[in-house]
Specification:
single chain, nine-stranded mixed beta sheet, binds flavin-adenine dinucleotide, oxidoreductase
């Protein structure tokens, strides 16, 4: 193994290419959109395994990624920072399996939690996606990876034109169409509205808000407010009524947001699957590794799954 073609330049494709190149492979990325113009560009993002089945593999990948981001946060140019925040839950038995990867967390004083909810206060990586994806692309190029703008219509086409030793399919929602052996991929629509930041640093996510998924992620120059989690919806246009409802919910949760002007808005389609797929695909003429279906946790799993792909490919020969 030596020459690897990665299909996809979102956070997953870039992270995989980074780790393969760092391991000594010659890597080329084929992608028809830059990360900023894909789902990856729409995330806020915080480290949190949201909209993904929390299997042992996912929790392991989350932990590896947490540690990697913690190191990256030492360099402000990466756009990664460690930030305190709150995870609210309104279920009687909340799933706290994710806290295994988090060194600092504590149950919140019930007096500080909205009626009926429980809360965990913790410190996690906050990844400012516009800064981070630019940093990651630059890091990938510095490792000698070639990034080519191209639409891939079939893996046979890649095999014929690129003659790689292996292919990694990291094409998000469109991965299943390229592989043709998977009918378990579907979009989870996420709408966001970005407000001016009145000086907030702490994030909050209210997973089971009766009005809908609600989160507030303050960044350097804005606050990403969400959201929605509409499984099966391919609608990529912001809906004004949905935005008004998001604004009502986030202002109820974080009163400082009242009166802050809207800076921008957007919709992203999370590439969801019954479970994240990271494996060698059987029945192919050459080694093909699938790495997709990360739902609402692509950043959260990125470095862990990139390491897993690198192990599956093996060392360069
Ligand atoms: C509103 C919202 C908020 C989110 N918040 C978070 C968060 O806080 N934390 C978190 O961890 N995650 C979050 N996510 C989820 C995260 O954004 C996704 O899991 C992640 O972006 C998926 O990355 P990806 O690289 O698999 O796919 P994408 O970013 O969609 O990239 C796919 C790439 O494949 C390329 N491609 C596809 N098909 C082809 C083809 N046939 N030929 C050539 N190129 C192709 C595209 O051009 C693109 O480069 C959020 C998502 C949304 C929508």
């Amino acid at each position: 193994m030596g020459r690897v073609t990665v299909v996809g330049a979102g956070v997953i494709g870039l992270s995989v290419a980074h780790e393969l190149a760092a391991a000594g492979h010659t890597v080329r990325i084929l992608a028809d959109r830059e990360a900023a113009a894909s789902t990856s560009g729409m995330a806020a993002a915080i480290w949190f395994p949201h909209d993904v089945k929390r299997s042992a593999q996912v929790l392991d990948a989350s932990a590896v990624t947490y540690q990697r981001f913690q190191r990256l946060a030492e360099d402000p140019d990466t756009g990664v920072a460690m930030r305190a925040g709150t995870v609210l839950s309104r279920r009687p038995d909340p799933d706290l399996s994710w806290t295994r990867a988090v060194p600092h967390y504590e149950p919140l004083d019930p007096a500080r939690v909205p009626g009926g909810a429980t809360g965990v206060r913790c410190v996690v990586p906050l990844i400012q996606t516009d800064v981070y994806l630019t940093w990651l692309r630059t890091a990938v190029l510095a490792l000698g990876v070639e990034i080519r703008t191209a639409e891939v219509r079939s893996l046979a086409e890649v095999q014929g034109s690129e003659k790689p030793d292996a292919i990694v399919v990291a094409a998000g929602l469109r991965s299943a169409a390229l592989l043709g052996d998977d009918d378990e991929v579907y979009p989870i629509r996420g709408q966001v509205v970005r407000l001016a930041n009145p000086g907030l640093t702490d994030w909050i996510t209210d997973q089971d808000n009766p009005g809908g998924l609600t989160y507030v992620v303050p960044r350097r120059h804005d606050v990403v407010c969400g959201g929605t989690g509409e499984a099966g919806s391919w609608d990529d246009q912001p809906d004004p009524e949905t935005e008004a409802a998001i604004l009502r919910r986030v202002r109820a949760l974080v009163p400082e947001l009242a009166g802050q002007p809207v800076l921008s808005r957007g919709v992203g389609l999370r590439p969801a699957r019954s479970s994240v797929r990271v494996e060698a695909v059987p029945g192919q003429a050459l080694p093909v590794i699938a790495c997709y279906g990360h739902g609402g946790a692509g950043f959260t799993l990125s470095w862990g799954d990139a390491a897993r792909v690198t192990t599956l490919i093996g060392p360069p020969t």
